[in-house]
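sorry for the late reply, my laptop died twice this morning and i had to redo everyting from scratch. anyway the thing you sent over, i finally got around to it. pasting the sequence first so we're on the same page, its 394 residues, then the predicted structure underneath. double check i copied it right bc i was rushing
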Amino acid sequence: MPELLPVAVDPARLPVFLEALTAMLEGSGPALLPYAAGTPEPSTPSGPFPDDLGIVASTSGSTGPPKRAALTRANLIASAAATHERLGGPGQWLLALPAHHIAGMQVLLRSLLARQAPILLNLDQGFDPADIGDALAWAPPGRHYTSLVPVQLQRVLDHAEGARALRTFDAVLIGGASCPPALLAHARSEAINVVTTYGMSETAGGCVYDGKPLNGTEVHFDDDGRIGLSGPMVAAGYLSQGPANSVFDTAPSGERRFWTDDLGAFENGALRVLGRRDDLIITGGLKVAPRLVEEAALALPGVDDAVAVATPSDKWGQAVSLAVASDHSLSIAAIREDLRGSLPAHALPTRLIVLSSLPTRGPGKPDRAAIASMDEWQNWSTPRGFTRRSACPE
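ok and here's the structure:
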């Protein structure tokens, strides 16, 4: 049985982690359980472990305690190869994400498998868009890639030098959270080759790019629209999580399959993710996908970010409630009127809270649980940190 080593990933000492990743890939070092430096060292599961175990990637824990996905070396290599094939060939990657998360780890792994030294930003004090240009200035000629979350992309676009540097990349992967269509359009208008990604720790990172599955990946749906992903990048399962492994099975092709907690559909030949099953809002017996409400709200003037959640309603069971980030004065009546042409009547939000910024968790993901559990949805006195709250009659 392979050895599993917990490794603290310190942004100031990334070369140490790179050495461990290199040894793991070569088979001369143990499998790795990465975690953020400064946080408690995770306990090491007792096994059993897959013979080819490479990385144990902790999930974000959005639906409960984090799980530990067992990714084999074969999973990691298949993912990197499919990414490079889609993007036009191997290249040098710039790391702008936390390396203990799967997206950041994949930046390093793709570089190592391409036999290219990764470009390491100094993330010890956080992400600074100005550092991208400085780091790229030292890079040799060739293909260059990076991976960002939407909030980083927005910060780069707001920074002239950072945006100029990002134009020189052959591709900029955007993942970790849903990217607002307006933000993507802005980036593309600046001649930045942004590529949206969909995937998770259980699939060794992104395996669907711009709505199209990578080579070897297949997308499946159950009768309710739940998304399943199969292919050589799908993890061997969870460690020490017996019942949780029911989300893994075998696809008709014979490949391992992972059933996500997301709902989706193909539209015009591309996968559209509608949101998590447990985030679905059921109001008056009708289903509302939060993603559709959020995308419509993000198209409105003055709305910088948006999250739709379900809150209790005596009349409808659940109410469609919208939290937005904005510096403008907004009202629920105006929001509803502006959204009438984009959403059916039952999907129009009935409650609104406006904040300077929305709470997040993980690499740029909105903290839906924190937003949905705010007392302010039931108690309409304006709380500290909230610029406005309003509700329409139900």
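The first strand starts at residue 4 and ends at 9.
thats about all i looked at so far, will dig more tmrw
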